[in-house]
Amino acid sequence: MLHFFTDPYKDELIYSAIARYHYYTGNVDFKDTLEELFGKRTIIPNFEIGSNIEALAKGLGGKYSSDYIINKHTIFPFYSAFLPKKRRQQILKGIKFKGKGLYTSLGVISGSICRKKHIYYCPICAKEEIAKYGEAYIHREHQLQGIFLCCKHGIRLIKYPISKKDVSRLQYIRLNMKLLKLETLKIKEVKYEEQLLKIARDAYYIITEDLSKFSKEDTWRCYKSLLYDRGLITPSGKVKQRELYEEFTHFYSSDVLSLLQSSVDYDNEYNWLKVITRNEARAVHPIRHLLLINFLEGDISKFFKGEKYEYKPFGKGPWPCLNIVSEHYKKEVITSLEITEDYKTKALVGTFTCSCGFVYSRKGPDKTEGDRYKAGRIKRFGEVWENSLKELITAKKYGLREIGRSMNCDPKTVVRYADKLGIKAFLNTKLKLPYSKKKHKNKKTITGEAYKKEVIDFIKDNKISTKQQIRNSLKKQYIWLYRHNKIWLQNNLPDSVPREKRNNKEGTKVDWDKRDAHYLKLLKNKRASMLNQVKPIRITKSSLGREIGILAALEKNIDKLPKTKEYLRQVTETVEEFQLRRCIQIIDNKIKEDENIKLWQLQRKAGIRTKAFNKLKKTLINYINTGGEKWGERKLQ
């Protein structure tokens, strides 16, 4: 057991502490130092993460545990929170003992960015340490890849003149005060200082906080929850990659992403942003995790301590049964919840199914605790409810409205279910059913004929439309006819174009002028439709083209469609323009409802980050105050 060791300073790399030990012992041969500390003369120093730490801890007589040294004096925690649990344990074992390929396992090699071949230090930190301890030491936070500034002083880190390649593999480098630049220091303004300093401080948080219970699996759950909050993931869990890419690249400047070697190529299916949000096994550098966390959450501590592991738009289960005649009415007994997306508004819809047969749904997310006890629509009453209805009706003691109140439904529903159960005769009422089977059949026929006419008219007006374009333009009509009159639909839709003809391999000449005019008409109609949607969608080439089924044609042949190209150039919205339109729509609705307009409420409802919202403030204030002259005295509060 060693009787003397240079205790590591706060955030000092264990490598640096060993270098100081060698200096103070006066050893000439580094192999002597290695034997004293590790019991072997063949240990190869590992600068950032160390190796054979368990042997070192034992040699120090239990003063420091191997876990303490690894967590407090290596850069391992920088990667730990983003590693799968199993791999993390394997790497920890490797660091403690004779691990090989540790950098590869960490992803330092395959996922490496902004690699540092030299030792870096902060001149102010060094100066303070010399004044306090009589020497400077190597900080682990200054050696992290992608970190350019000192998280404490906010100044650029300086490269130490002696690199690891300049010395023997067995040698440990100690900071020599004579080689440090201290007195002649001139602090220069660093470009993008604010964002780079934020990243440096977030990185320091990761290596100093105890995040041992956090793993890649937990990180992914947090990402998923925050992506839901931002509307960037569907109820089925699929990330809206295009929208994510557009918002992310608007949040960060291309220069910052380039500096951090984290630019995003949307067309590359394996770009790091897609990989990190698909929860793939590939290694993603911690800096890129920090970029995503800052974009989604902003507050690193809130991300790791906010317990935001799973998006729950309808709260935690089980959920209450809202069957008024059930023994467990309003008791939290429902465990079956299916979350879907409303076809028109894209709002989340939760469908709750109880064991008593009662099924109800409502749009989410829940905003108050009271929303938990609301049913937007009852999909099925179930056997328990129907049996109670039978008892009330056959008792012949209660009026129709009284039965409705007891069953929590309107009188028409009572009559309809009485007819369904064959007990309508027990009701002394002249109230007619909401519809008869005959009327329903007639209505179905009328609807079908109307939809057929719309399809035929569309085909006449758009003679070169494909099946996919018709389906995308007449979604409601197409789906209804597909379900109720599939044969008619198949007989009246245009024939499918063979792939070889679509690719024009048989020499079929395309009339691009005609197609240009046709696409232009489709795009104008679709844009008008999108502008009137309750939940706005950003107008882009992708959103327009995808809706009417011509996105591939627009991407491949846009230069052959000059009118279409020019129209898209005119109407395509930037992220800022779309945010402005979202805000204006909210303002218009508030004005119509005669509600006061407050900036903070507007920002929250529009879901826009403060930095982006500040750019819109002046325009929005002018819009509201101009509108105030038209709709009365309504100034911004």
TrEMBL record:
It comes from the Bacteria. Residues 4-157 form the TniQ domain. Pfam families: TniQ (PF06527), TnsD (PF15978). InterPro entries: TniQ (IPR009492), TnsD_C (IPR032750). Residues 199-568 form the Transposon Tn7 transposition protein TnsD C-terminal domain. This is Transposon Tn7 transposition protein TnsD C-termianl domain-containing protein. It comes from Clostridium felsineum.
